[in-house]
Design brief:
heterodimer; A: alpha+beta; Cytochrome p450; 5-stranded mixed beta sheet; 3-stranded antiparallel beta sheet; 16 helices; 12 strands; B: alpha+beta; Alpha-Beta Plaits; two-stranded antiparallel ribbon; 2 helices; about 20% strand; disordered C terminus
Chain lengths: ~425, ~100
Amino acid sequence: MTSTETTVASSGSEPNITDSSLYLDGVPFERFAAMRDTPGLVWHPYGDDGFWAATRHEDVQQISRDSETFSSAIGHTNLWDLEADALEARRSLIDTDAPDHTRLRRLIAKSFTPKNVKRWEDTVRAIAVELLDDFAASGGGDWVEKVAAPLPIRVILTMLGVPVEDADYLVELSNYLVEGTGDEQSIPPDAFGNTTELRLLPFNSPASHALFEYGEALAAKRRAEPQDDLVTMLVQAEAEDGDRLTGSEYKNLFHLLVFAGNETTRTAISQGGVALADNPDEWRRIVSARADDDEAVGAAMIETATEEVLRWSTPVMHMRRTTSVATEIAGTQIAAGQKVVMWYAAANHDERTFTDPHRFDVGRAENPHFAFGGGGHHMCLGAFLARLEVAILLEEMADRNLVLTRRSEPIRTPSNFVHGILSVDLGCEVSP
Amino acid sequence: MIAENDATPAEIADPVRMIIDEDACIGGGVCEMLEEATFLLDDDTVIAAIVGDGLLARERAEIVVDRCPGRALSFVEIGSGLEAGTEGRSPGEGDED
């Protein structure tokens, strides 16, 4: 499509917000601020065409909540389109509209409700304590490798019912998947015995083939011998009308749970650790609230600090929708079949919504962030699990009086999608 | 754990009665997180249900309605003749906009 009466981004010297290498220096906040100040949505060239970029909190929310107009099932939920057969082969909960979405989501939502997530509190705490004690004993190290990565992957694998001895293998696969969100992959297309065309695999990664195979083998074991775990629940899942997950739905869901349960919370903890090291006064606020005689003071602080870590980290920086009908957002006319991209990373720093948005404020009272999306049907399934993991980590760090310090610049993930940190060296001392 | 909702209209400032649209509920659990004394997701269906009398202060009700990912919550005025719960929701009544 050609747009005539619109503001066009990245003409001339403006940074191109889709350029993955741009994010090696961090989120382009100045560019996003300029886009937020531009009336309407901003047309952004991409490939042979382009997309409408929504950067204000209000606009992202409006788009996110209207899943009929702004479809997840058309095209793809990433910037690039997929061919029809690839989209079908890769389709998961994320790329589905109602009523399919509602049916799929209800099949697994049970395991992720606030009440049911709390059942995992002891498991999460035990893993967090072990990782933190090791990290403190060695005086710090690579925060991502030692704490941020292992905590969420170990939690989700425990929930899924993956045997402990296989955890390293799935972490390895998961790391290859992350590569698939960038520009280069370190493994050949036929790695892990893959014979499927890469375009038919999530993240175009042969590791997806291996993860599918692993998930299917585990499902077969659980059908034969049910356990009290998520995979058993999935293979037994049956909706009210007797509907079950298809083979393709199951393996894509297993894949989604391993990847999403791993990468996103890893990012929240990675970015959170850096933020706490960079803002020692904010960390002291958490420690002193937690030490207050009134337990409610500490609990309230952990709650607001967790939400602020989530806002600050914004692990997924955008999601795309495609218009099913012609519509209008913020005065911009949008034809049917166009891409609309919700930039959560921009909306989470919108000065119209957040007081002093570039300040890391662990006591922030009003914090309607979009770390789990902008609301509506596709709200992050694992939101309460992610909150639990971040909250427990903060509690255990505060109770141990650990102080993080920055010893290196973070090495960031070259991705316009995942706000990741590959590694960062943090010091860790026990404060007297 | 089900928290007991023993509040009466007299104890809640400006109370309203919550209504759930079962078909729209996606089991997101935001209501249970925000108001655990009033909402609980059913263990089998994962659809939200009301615990107790379903009364909330208007200010809180507006927040829960706003945050519900399935747009499945609304509220009615007390004494409107509609009972709390999943039935009796008539179009236009209790809708926010």
